[in-house]
């Protein structure tokens, strides 16, 4: 589980060390970690460091200093290192170390973009965590020209770009990017993950993340982003215990499917059953239950006591959905509301709830709960902001579905699972996710907490998840992994079952595809 902190928290954690005069030590540690990553990348790409063409893009701050010291390390090991002084204010000690190691320094000019485009490795140390807003000339022009030239060189050996702490043009806290920003293959970040590196926009720009420990104490600070990874599933998944029976293992009530959309009921049911349940009670028309029982004969089609509800896939009967929502509120049962159920929401509910809209549905939901409604395009451009806004207005957890699904809490923090594959952009995919979510809520109902009561501690990640936002993040992670195993929604439930069985067997790689090139990251 990667934890993301706002830039202000990272700076506050650095402050005591800087006040104690440990700034040079921090920079040497950061630069050594950065240089080690650069060396590994060069050796992997070309077999050695010696003779590699390296360009360091250095700004005026500590990021520039880190990049210069790393460039000096590479130069001492035989790389041909050229520094482009992008802002005209190099870190003095870093520049001196670079020159002493035999590197060259050039001012930003007309030849800088072609020079950078020809490099085998580019180290982006221009701007750091304190930067925000769109880049201005001449910096934006230089970056655009360099990246355009590098992508059009036709070289068989692709250029590698490593960003220092945060790619230039990325907001370290929000992940917002302008029209021009550095697109890195890897970002080496220091002390703690910046929240923006785990969020849409920033995560795409950052590429793979490498974290270098520089001794920061982040315990006093609460992360604003939690990013589950496939490896977390083996720890956080609620497996059945030996003393459980079908009622204590979890009973899900499901209202899904209709005469118009019978397949939605089947997909949601199959996904929930594949995730693992003690029992599923389906309330649906006869044509839906007939199809479900043909595939899943263990499903019960009569009402009865449940431990969680899921409603909405496939435009089900409004009265049945209302009754389920009322029961959930009266008995404080956790609830998933999707698709057809979203139109029933006009107020916050008096129970724990996960709402799963796509961008257009979120616009409609905000229209009923608040004023100043965004457009769908605005939601898609800034999903985090609008998901958080909806969570606060609804006073519940919002799982905003999209290329990168964001799970938002009312306190403003978010869970950001890995993005799923394009194969999930298909009819019925959302129904499957609802089934997974409902099953997880039912199987953790006896141990679940409505909200996280304090800061998340990595050391506490030692048992099944009880925070519903984390549960939703795990559900989205499994959904994404399953999407790598099929081309259509009807294949997803079987893929989910395969993943869960792999986790139960204690082999995350066998179940999640981490070892077969299909990892959902």
UniProtKB/TrEMBL annotation:
Entry keywords, A to Z: ATP-binding, Isomerase, Lyase, Metal-binding, Multifunctional enzyme, NAD, NADP, Nucleotide-binding, Potassium
Pfam families xrefs: Carb_kinase, YjeF_N
Positions with a binding annotation for AMP: 401-405, 430
YjeF C-terminal domain residues: 229-503
EC number, UniProt record: 4.2.1.136, 5.1.99.6
Cofactor(s) required, per the database record: Mg(2+); K(+)
Top-level taxon of the source organism: Bacteria
Alphabetized InterPro entries for the sequence: Carbohydrate_kinase_pred_CS, CARKD, Nnr, Ribokinase-like, YjeF_N_dom, YjeF_N_dom_sf
Transmembrane segments: none
Keyword ATP-binding: yes
Catalysed reactions, semicolon-separated: (6S)-NADPHX + ADP = AMP + phosphate + NADPH + H(+); (6R)-NADPHX = (6S)-NADPHX; (6S)-NADHX + ADP = AMP + phosphate + NADH + H(+); (6R)-NADHX = (6S)-NADHX
Cofactor: binding details: Binds 1 potassium ion per subunit.
Binding site for (6S)-NADPHX: 62-66, 128-134, 165, 264, 314, 358, 431
YjeF N-terminal domain segment(s): 10-222
Binding sites annotated in the UniProt record for K(+): 63, 124, 168
SUPFAM superfamilies per UniProt: Ribokinase-like, YjeF N-terminal domain-like
Protein family: In the N-terminal section; belongs to the NnrE/AIBP family. In the C-terminal section; belongs to the NnrD/CARKD family.
Function: Catalyzes the dehydration of the S-form of NAD(P)HX at the expense of ADP, which is converted to AMP. Together with NAD(P)HX epimerase, which catalyzes the epimerization of the S- and R-forms, the enzyme allows the repair of both epimers of NAD(P)HX, a damaged form of NAD(P)H that is a result of enzymatic or heat-dependent hydration. Catalyzes the epimerization of the S- and R-forms of NAD(P)HX, a damaged form of NAD(P)H that is a result of enzymatic or heat-dependent hydration. This is a prerequisite for the S-specific NAD(P)H-hydrate dehydratase to allow the repair of both epimers of NAD(P)HX.
Assembly with partners or alone: Homotetramer.
NCBIfam families registered for this protein in UniProt: yjeF_cterm
Protein name per its UniProtKB record: Bifunctional NAD(P)H-hydrate repair enzyme
Source organism per UniProt: Brevibacterium pityocampae
Upper classification of the organism: Bacteria, Bacillati, Actinomycetota, Actinomycetes, Micrococcales
